[in-house]
Amino acid sequence: AHAEEDRQFHALVAARNHADSMIHATRKSMEQLGEKMESGEKESIEAAIKELEEVMKGEDKERIETLTKSLGDASAKMAERLYAQSSAGPADLGGSGAGHSEGPSSGARDDVVDAEFEEVKDDKK
């Protein structure tokens, strides 16, 4: 009985940690976008962050995971737009590297958000 409780507690802690990482990465992405964000999108993401922070105080692992996924989806859309804007801009200095990325996005580090989002899927059974 205690082994099952320990497993559930471990899963809850992992969900909370991942949610916290997603919040941090999303806020960092929002800082990078700055004024380029649409006001409605910014308010929506900030509301999702606040809701997730409140749910993290409880013990509803499924709710935490659901809100983390929702925040990840919103953050991914935000990152896509950042990449689109950076690739649509002047592409000077981007041709000298042996890039494995899809475009000249050397200054944008929002790909971390996408990688973290993928980890959520790997953690689920």
Structural notes for this entry:
This protein is mostly helical. It has one domain (2-87, 108-123): Substrate Binding Domain Of Dnak, Chain:A, Domain 2 (Up-down Bundle), CATH 1.20.1270.10. It contains 4 helices and no strands.
Rg on CA atoms, Å? 17 Å
Uncertain parts: 91-125
Q: Provide the CATH architecture.
A: Up-down Bundle
Class by helix and strand content?
mainly alpha
**What's the order of the H and E elements?**
HHHH
Mean pLDDT equals 75
Approximate helicity band: over 70%
Q: How many separate domains? A: 1
Main sheet, how many strands, which sense, barrel?
none
Q: Quick one: CATH class?
A: Mainly Alpha
> What is the oligomer described by this structure?
single chain
Shape: elongated
The CATH topology is Substrate Binding Domain Of Dnak, Chain:A, Domain 2
Termini separation comes to 21 Å
Q: What portion of residues belong to β-strands? A: under 5%
Number of strands: 0
| Number of helical regions | 4
Question: Which SSEs are present, and which pair or pack?
Answer:
Blueprint (H helix, E strand, L loop, with lengths): L1 H32 L5 H18 L4 H28 L22 H13 L2
Helix pairs in contact: 1-2, 1-3, 1-4, 2-3, 3-4
Features:
mainly alpha, 4 helices, 125 residues, Substrate Binding Domain Of Dnak, Chain:A, Domain 2
